[in-house]
């Protein structure tokens, strides 16, 4: 297309594109015009190589004073050409240095030499002026100047429309001695002709004239001229042609790129445009212009900012500036296309970081994504993949994996824009293996005195070099061959066993095996015998019960007095010390007083049977209130959520979030879910055998969802048990399963019976026995100790009344 600088003027100026080099108008007295043109290369003179010799030199006489030289360029490093010429009989000498690399033609202009034969040579050169490296010269080629010395007007003048601003003119050359042709034009209705400039001599002309006005009729004429003496022929006949209307671009094509970007291509049909107006519209509304684009633009790449996954329409038109006014062409074809989604990440790679993690890296290709979805599962598995959402990063360590397992992993970019979520396509799956390590359950169920077998699971025995076990409680042993821990624990409480494995890749993995050893229910035992007692008739003697009995399975206990009956909770003080301490802090502070059981679930399908409390209180004075919370405590899993156990409630997805709320498990099916969910629910006690019946009765009551007022806000309570056969609407506090008081429970209760009340009688108050003498003689006092499960044991006191 024509140079755009010329399109900005109202009056037409014209470029003349010549097939040959421009003619020289100065006349020298020598036979030839010897041009003193120097090379312009900046290459170093001492190091540049000489170019390759050109070939196929041809010479064509154009008249009595000009010759056309044409050749084949065989070099890729020349900066110009040396033209050599002489009248035949003399060795050709330098005519000119033509400093145009890759040229393949040149016009030599001479004095009038009709019928004279000339010799020509050519060679390429490289290097700076004055230090050129030349190729070899071509062979000499001769040519004879035309003999006839005519100077006649051109004929067969023709004007052909090219486009909206270009016309091509041609004529027949009827002279052999011209120095060139003068061209003139005018708008057909004008009276005055305007010069278009001059061309060099030739036999056939086909000259493009650009920068014309669209939809205008033009007239053209031409005449030959000579320089010495100055002379011109008559004009040719006038040729007329009308330019086309301002032409619109065509063949608009739109390509959807990543991240909602588009690339546009079209065909430029005009030589007059000063720019382009590219427009778009969505499914509704009018077309809107993008930024204007420069003249001669045929490609606009990667225009961003479109809504993702949205269908758009596009069109383009040319702009022509006339003075301060913009004139527009018609529009191109309209293209309808849907924008892409986010650009997908690439080059996903991973490596094992530890026995439970792998580190992933990738290249982020989207400029709009705000995060990434990582999808993974064990390689070869048909399980539903786990999806982890991470930020707008390019590396991430995936945790919670199993040691030595091979995982298949892929990811995609994501973003939410205007409340709509967009996802890129996924990368291909890659496979990454976690490092070798120790797997399995690190909080296994264990009971005091019961047979225990724990297999230590190593990801790959072939990679194991050594395995050590330290900190085993009494009664348990490690088998280094079978890699097991077995035996019967003879001490209770929370025990930490350290497992250390070394692997052949040099890595060492240490795991802590937490054993929370609780004693099964058992009858009380005699821990010390009573001394014989002598008491006077009508006298009294006090005997302490302290240290005489013990309940091996109960270190501490709590008693909840409820509207449905008394509930005693035997606490696992040694196995879960932090949780029991937390529970007793609420108990001692009276925060469970005036509470109620606010949730009861008996769901066979959901495998959950529980009664929950510890979260809310109610009095007629204060109404509904929340239990004041202490700081959340560390999870202490390891005791199974079996029927009759008591566990702490916590926030979903937050293992260490337990505060005041607890629940009683009322079916063994709970264990399958609650022992693993949320890293396991901490069991910190169990209800006594008589209390279990009370809790089961509460669990059998009807339930209803309520919303209660607490302070200035409301609280939704789900599955609230109500002590009625017909649920109340709204909630009736009188029907709640209340806890008027809660506090410590005595571990043992005592009874005393005299075998001979005629000799002595006995009574018990707290932990003291009062023995009263009646008459002379000897008898025994039977002392019975009963635990919270109703199990008992006895021993006697020998009493003598002198």
Show the helix and strand layout.
Blueprint: E1 55-61, E2 66-72, E3 80-87, E4 93-98, E5 105-109, E6 117-126, E7 133-134, E8 141-144, E9 155-161, E10 167-172, E11 180-187, E12 194-199, E13 207-209, E14 217-226, E15 231-232, E16 239-242, E17 250-256, E18 262-267, E19 275-281, E20 288-289, E21 293-294, E22 299-303, E23 311-322, E24 325-331, E25 335-338, E26 346-354, E27 357-363, E28 371-378, E29 386-390, E30 395-398, E31 406-417, E32 420-423, E33 430-433, E34 438-439, E35 445-447, E36 451-455, E37 457-458, E38 464-470, E39 476-479, E40 484-488, E41 493-503, E42 508-518, E43 525-526, E44 533-534, E45 540-544, E46 549-550, E47 556-562, E48 565-571, H1 577-588, E49 595-596, E50 599-603, E51 608-613, E52 616-619, E53 623-626, E54 645-648, E55 662-665, H2 670-674, E56 683-687, H3 689-699, E57 703-710, E58 713-721, E59 738-739, E60 741-744, E61 748-754, E62 760-765, E63 768-773, E64 777-787, E65 792-801
Parallel strand pairs: 35-42, 44-65
Antiparallel strand pairs: 1-2, 2-5, 3-4, 3-6, 6-7, 6-8, 9-10, 10-13, 11-12, 11-14, 14-15, 14-16, 17-18, 18-22, 19-20, 19-21, 19-23, 23-24, 23-25, 26-27, 27-30, 28-29, 28-31, 31-32, 31-33, 34-37, 36-40, 38-41, 39-40, 41-42, 43-46, 45-63, 47-48, 47-60, 48-56, 49-59, 50-51, 51-55, 52-53, 54-55, ...
Strand adjacency order, main sheet: 50-51-55-54-56-48-47-60
Largest sheet data? 8 strands, antiparallel
Strand content: over 45%
Shape: elongated
Structural class: mainly beta
Helix content: under 10%
Distance between the termini: 139 Å
Counting DSSP H or I runs of 4 or more residues, the number of helices is: 3
Q: What Rg is obtained from the alpha carbons, in whole angstroms?
A: 53 Å
| Oligomer kind | single chain
Calculate the mean pLDDT score and round it. Answer: 91
Q: Give me the count of strands.
A: 65
Q: Which regions are unreliable across 5 or more consecutive residues at pLDDT < 50? A: 1-45
């Amino acid at each position: 297309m024509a140079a755009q600088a010329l399109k900005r003027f109202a009056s037409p100026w014209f470029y003349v594109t010549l097939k040959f080099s421009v003619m020289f108008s100065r006349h020298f007295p020598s036979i030839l015009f010897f041009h003193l043109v120097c090379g312009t290369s900046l290459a170093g003179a001492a190091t540049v190589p000489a170019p390759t010799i050109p070939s196929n030199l041809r010479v064509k006489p154009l008249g009595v004073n000009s010759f056309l030289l044409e050749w084949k360029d065989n070099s890729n490093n020349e900066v110009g050409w040396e033209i050599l010429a002489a009248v035949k009989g003399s060795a050709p000498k330098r005519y000119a240095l033509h400093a145009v690399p890759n040229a393949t033609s040149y016009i030599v202009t001479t004095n009038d030499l009709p019928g004279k034969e000339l010799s020509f040579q050519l060679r390429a050169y490289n290097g700076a002026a004055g230090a050129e490296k030349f190729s070899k010269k071509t062979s000499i080629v001769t040519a004879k100047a035309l003999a006839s010395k005519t100077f006649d007007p051109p004929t067969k003048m023709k004007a052909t429309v090219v486009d909206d601003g270009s016309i091509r003119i041609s004529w027949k050359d009827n002279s052999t001695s011209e120095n060139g042709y003068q061209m003139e034009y005018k708008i057909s209705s004008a009276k005055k002709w305007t010069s278009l400039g001059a061309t060099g001599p030739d036999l056939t002309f086909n000259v493009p004239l650009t920068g014309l006005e669209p939809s205008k009729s033009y007239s053209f004429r031409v005449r030959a001229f000579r320089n010495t003496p100055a002379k011109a022929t008559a004009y040719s006949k006038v040729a007329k042609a009308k330019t086309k209307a301002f032409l619109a671009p065509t063949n608009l094509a739109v390509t959807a790129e990543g991240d909602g970007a588009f690339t546009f291509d079209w065909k430029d049909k005009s030589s007059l445009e000063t720019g382009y107006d590219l427009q778009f519209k969505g499914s509704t509304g009018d077309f809107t212009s993008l930024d204007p684009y420069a003249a001669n633009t045929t490609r606009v790449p990667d225009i961003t900012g479109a809504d993702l996954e949205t269908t758009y329409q596009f069109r383009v038109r040319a702009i022509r500036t006339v003075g301060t006014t913009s004139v527009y062409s018609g529009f191109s074809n309209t293209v309808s296309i849907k924008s892409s989604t986010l650009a997908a990440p690439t080059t996903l790679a991973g490596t094992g970081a530890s026995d439970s993690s792998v580190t992933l890296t990738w290249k982020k290709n989207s400029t709009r994504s705000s995060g990434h979805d990582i999808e993974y599962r064990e390689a070869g598995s048909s399980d539903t993949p786990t999806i982890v959402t991470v930020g707008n990063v390019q590396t991430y360590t995936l945790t919670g994996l199993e040691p030595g397992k091979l995982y298949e992993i892929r990811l995609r970019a994501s973003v939410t824009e205007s409340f709509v979520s967009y996802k890129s396509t996924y990368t291909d799956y890659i496979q990454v293996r976690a490092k070798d390590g120790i797997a399995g359950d690190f909080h296994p169920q264990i009971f005091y005195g019961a047979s225990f077998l724990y297999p230590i699971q190593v990801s790959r025995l072939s990679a194991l070099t050594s395995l050590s076990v330290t900190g085993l409680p009494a009664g348990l042993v490690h088998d280094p061959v079978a890699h097991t821990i077995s035996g019967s624990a003879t001490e209770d409480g929370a025990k930490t066993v350290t497992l250390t494995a070394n692997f052949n890749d040099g890595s060492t993995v240490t795991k802590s095996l937490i054993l929370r050893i609780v004693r099964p229910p058992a009858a009380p035992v005699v821990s010390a015998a009573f001394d014989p007692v002598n008491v006077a008739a009508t006298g009294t003697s006090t005997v302490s019960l302290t240290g005489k009995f013990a309940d091996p399975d109960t270190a501490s206990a709590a008693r909840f007095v409820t509207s449905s009956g008394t509930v005693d909770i035997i606490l696992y003080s040694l196995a879960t010390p932090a949780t029991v301490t937390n529970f007793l802090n609420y108990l001692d502070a009276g925060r469970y007083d005036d509470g109620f059981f606010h949730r009861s679930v008996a769901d066979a399908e959901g495998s959950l049977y529980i009664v929950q409390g510890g979260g809310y209180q109610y009095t007629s004075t204060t109404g509904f209130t929340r239990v004041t919370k202490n700081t959340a405590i560390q999870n202490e899993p390891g005791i199974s959520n079996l029927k009759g156990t008591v566990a702490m409630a916590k926030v979903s997805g937050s293992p260490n979030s337990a505060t005041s709320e607890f629940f009683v498990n009322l079916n063994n099916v709970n264990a399958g879910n609650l022992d693993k969910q949320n890293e396991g629910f901490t069991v910190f006690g169990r209800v006594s055998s008589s209390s279990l019946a009370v809790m089961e009765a509460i669990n059998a009551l009807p339930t209803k969802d309520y919303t209660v007022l607490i302070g200035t806000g409301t609280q939704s309570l789900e599955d609230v048990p109500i002590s009625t056969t017909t649920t109340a609407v709204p909630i009736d506090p009188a029907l709640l399963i209340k806890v008027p008081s809660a506090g410590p429970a005595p571990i043992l209760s005592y009874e005393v019976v005299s075998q001979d009340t005629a000799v002595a009688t006995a009574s018990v108050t707290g932990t003291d026995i009062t023995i009263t003498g009646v008459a002379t003689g000897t008898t025994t006092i039977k002392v019975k100790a009963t635990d919270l499960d109703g199990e008992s044991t006895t021993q006697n006191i020998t009493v003598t009344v002198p």
